[in-house]
Amino acid sequence: MKIDLTELLEKVGNDADIEESEEISFPEDNLNLTSPVAMKLHLVNIGSSVLVEGKVTTEAQLECSRCLEKFKFPLSIDIEEEFTKELFIASGSNEIELKEGDFTGTIERDNTIDLAELIRQDLLLALPIKTLCAQDCKGIGGK
Ligand SMILES: [Zn+2]
């Protein structure tokens, strides 16, 4: 989930397309992913930050809350996030104001960003509130 931005950071306007998939698990969230997390991302250096946009897809195994059967649920999330190097904020003009509540990711000192946390949060938000194997599931022993 780590992406090296060294080349991207060299010049404003530099961009890159990244396509990769990785097996990740988030055991602490009860999120059981049954297929690798596939990322298709576009990254652009917009000067004050790096904009990361794209799509992330995977599949989770959920348990039906009515019949307790396990079923697979495809997850697809849109990523749109800015990553800022702390240096940019410190040395930048006053135009860059980070308001409280704004969430921007941080570019590490070694020019990498880690998308794991962002993806974890977005995947959890994409989970259905009611986990049903089928809309008309009749529950345990139901007909
Ligand atoms: Zn069910």
Q: Strand-residue fraction?
A: 35-45%
What ligands can be seen in this structure? zinc ion
Tell me the count of domains. Answer: 1
- Biggest sheet, strands in spatial order? 2-3-4-5-6
Question: Biggest sheet: strands, sense, closure?
Answer: 5 strands, mixed
Instruction: Give the CA-CA distance, first to last residue.
Output: 44 Å
Number of beta strands: 7
Task: Determine the fraction of residues in helical runs and give it as a percent range.
Answer: 10-25%
Class from helix and strand fractions: mainly beta
Low-pLDDT segments, ≥5 res: none
How large is the count of helical segments? 2
How does this structure look, described?
- Strands 2-3-4-5-6 form a five-stranded mixed beta sheet. The chain has a two-stranded antiparallel sheet with strand order 1-7.
- β5, α1 and β6 (105-107) form a beta-alpha-beta unit.
- It has one domain (2-126).
- The model has no long low-confidence stretch (mean pLDDT 87).
- It has 143 residues and is mainly beta.
- The protein has helices at 86-91, 116-126; strands spanning 2-4, 15-22, 32-45, 50-63, 70-85, 105-107, 112-114.
- Helix content is 12%, strand content 43%.
- The site of zinc ion (ZN) has 7 residues, from loops.
